[in-house]
C-alpha cells in the first residue's frame, strides 16, 4: 500500500508523535530553566560582580540564540533535523561541563565568569538548534497541515520545562551546591542523546535553498505582527512585580501563575481552532483577547482585576505564535522550512529583547500602569497589520 493510500492517523496518534519529538525541547528548556533563578545570585554574591554583570551573563544566552538563528535554520535544512538536535544536545553537555568548571574556579572570579559566559553562549546556540530542529522534524513527521499543533506542543514543552526547572534549580543549589547545576545539565543532555540515537528521522528535503535574507524578507511581515503582540508578554513577565509594588499590592507571583496556566490551557484546548478557522482569523481573535487583558491590567483597581487581565493576556497570546506561524511558513518552500522557522523565531526574540528597555522608559516617564496601555497599543498595531496581511492573502 502506498503512502497516499494509508488511512489517516487519529488525532491522538499525531499528538503522540509530536510529543515524542518535542520531548527534546523539554529537556533543552529544563536545562535552561535549572540555572535561570540562581545564576544571577551566583555571579553577584559568590563571584562578586555587579547586578548589571549578572544580568548580562543571563542575557548572553538569549543573544547567542538570536544570532545563531540563521545557522540553526540552515543546519536543519541541510543536514537534517535529527542531526541539528544532536548538535544542540552536545552543546548542552559542553555547557554543563563549563558551568561545573566555573563553579570550581570561584577563587578566580574573572576566569570563572568568562568560563560561565562561554557555557551560556553554548546553551543559547543549543536552544536555537533544538527549537528549530524539533518543530521542523514534527512537520516532516506528521505533515505541514499540523504545523500549528507542532508549534503549540513545542511551546508547551518549553514553558512547562522552565516552570519546572527554575524551582528545581533553587532546591538543587540549596541542597547540593552550585556544582550540581553543571552536572545536571550534562547528565540530562547525555540521557537525551542516548534516547535519540535510534530514533528514525525524516529525510532531508531536496530542492532549492533560499538565502536566509530572502527567507527573512518573506517572513518579516508576519514576524513583525508577532513582535508587536509579543511585547505584551515581555512587559508582563519583566515588570509585573514592580507594577504591584508601585500600586502597593502583594502577590505578583500569582499574576505570573495565572498567565502561565491560561497560556497552556488555551494551547491544549483550542489549538484545533487554527486548522478550523485559519491562521489569520485565529490570530486576530487572540490578539483582541490579549489586548483586552492588557487594557484591564492598565485600568485594574485591585489585584482581582489584575489577575483577570493577566489571564486574558495569557489566554489570547497563547495561540498568536502558532496561528501566524502557520501563515508565515506557507511563504517559503519546504526545502527552506528550517530557515523559515528560524527567521520567524527571530521576531519573538526581538520582542523580548526590546520589551525591557522600551517599557522601562515608559514607566520612568509615565508610570508603571502605562506600560500595559503601551503594550495594548502595540498589540492593536499587530492586529491591524494582521488584518492587512489577511486582506492581501485574500486578494
From TrEMBL:
Question: Which membrane topology describes this protein?
Answer: Multi-pass membrane protein
Asked whether the UniProt record includes Transmembrane helix among its keywords, one would answer yes
Q: Which GO terms describe its cellular component?
A: plasma membrane
Q: Which InterPro entries match?
A: MFS, MFS_dom, MFS_trans_sf, MFS_Transporters, MFS_YhhS-like
- Which molecular function terms from Gene Ontology are attached? transmembrane transporter activity
Q: Where in the cell is it found?
A: Cell inner membrane; Cell membrane
Q: Which Pfam families match?
A: MFS_1
Q: Name the source's superkingdom.
A: Bacteria
Q: Where is the Major facilitator superfamily (MFS) profile domain?
A: 17-394
What keywords were assigned to this record? Cell inner membrane, Cell membrane, Membrane, Transmembrane, Transmembrane helix, Transport
Question: Where do the TM regions start and end?
Answer: 21-43, 49-72, 84-105, 111-139, 151-170, 176-196, 219-245, 251-270, 277-299, 305-329, 341-364, 370-389
Task: Say if the entry is tagged with keyword Metal-binding.
Answer: no
* Gene3D superfamilies in alphabetical order: MFS general substrate transporter like domains (1.20.1250.20)
Q: Which family does it belong to?
A: Belongs to the major facilitator superfamily. YhhS family.
Q: What is this protein called?
A: Uncharacterized MFS-type transporter EIY72_16940
Amino acid at each position: 500500500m502506498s503512502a497516499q493510500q494509508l488511512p489517516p492517523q487519529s488525532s491522538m496518534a499525531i499528538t503522540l508523535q509530536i510529543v515524542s519529538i518535542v520531548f527534546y525541547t523539554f529537556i533543552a528548556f529544563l536545562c535552561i530553566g535549572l540555572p535561570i533563578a540562581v545564576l544571577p545570585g551566583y555571579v553577584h554574591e559568590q563571584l562578586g560582580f555587579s547586578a548589571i554583570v549578572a544580568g548580562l551573563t543571563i542575557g548572553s544566552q538569549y543573544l547567542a540564540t538570536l544570532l545563531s538563528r540563521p545557522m540553526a535554520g540552515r543546519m536543519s535544512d541541510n543536514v537534517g533535523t535529527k542531526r541539528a538536535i544532536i548538535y544542540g544536545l552536545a552543546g548542552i553537555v559542553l555547557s554543563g561541563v563549563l558551568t561545573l568548571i566555573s563553579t570550581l574556579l570561584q577563587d578566580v572570579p574573572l576566569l570563572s565568569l568568562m568560563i560561565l559566559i562561554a557555557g551560556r553562549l553554548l546553551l543559547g546556540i543549543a536552544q536555537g538548534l533544538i527549537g528549530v530542529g524539533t518543530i521542523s522534524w514534527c512537520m516532516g513527521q506528521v505533515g505541514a497541515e499540523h504545523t500549528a499543533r507542532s508549534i503549540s506542543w513545542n511551546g508547551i514543552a518549553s514553558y512547562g520545562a522552565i516552570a519546572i526547572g527554575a524551582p528545581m534549580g533553587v532546591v538543587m543549589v540549596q541542597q547540593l551546591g552550585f556544582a550540581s547545576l553543571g552536572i545536571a545539565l550534562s547528565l540530562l543532555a547525555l540521557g537525551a542523546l542516548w534516547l535519540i540515537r535510534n530514533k528514525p528521522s525524516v529525510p532531508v528535503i531536496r530542492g532549492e535553498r533560499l538565502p536566509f535574507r530572502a527567507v527573512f524578507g518573506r517572513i518579516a511581515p508576519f514576524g513583525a505582527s508577532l513582535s508587536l503582540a509579543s511585547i505584551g508578554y515581555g512587559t508582563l513577565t519583566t515588570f509585573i512585580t514592580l507594577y504591584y509594588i508601585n500600586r502597593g499590592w502583594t502577590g505578583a507571583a500569582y499574576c505570573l501563575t495565572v498567565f502561565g496556566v491560561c497560556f497552556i490551557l488555551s494551547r491544549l484546548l483550542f489549538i484545533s481552532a487554527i486548522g478550523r478557522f485559519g491562521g489569520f482569523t485565529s490570530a486576530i481573535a487572540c490578539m483582541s483577547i490579549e489586548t483586552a487583558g492588557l487594557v484591564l491590567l492598565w485600568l485594574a483597581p485591585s489585584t482581582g482585576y489584575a489577575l483577570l487581565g493577566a489571564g486574558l493576556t495569557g489566554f489570547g497570546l497563547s495561540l498568536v505564535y502558532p496561528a501566524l506561524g502557520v501563515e508565515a511558513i506557507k511563504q517559503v518552500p519546504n526545502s527552506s522550512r528550517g530557515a523559515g522557522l528560524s527567521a520567524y523565531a527571530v521576531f519573538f526574540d526581538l520582542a523580548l529583547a526590546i520589551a525591557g528597555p522600551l517599557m522601562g522608559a515608559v514607566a520612568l516617564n509615565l508610570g508603571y500602569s502605562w506600560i500595559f496601555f503601551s503594550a495594548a497599543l502595540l498589540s492593536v498595531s499587530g492586529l491591524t497589520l494582521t488584518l492587512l496581511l489577511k486582506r492581501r492573502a485574500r486578494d
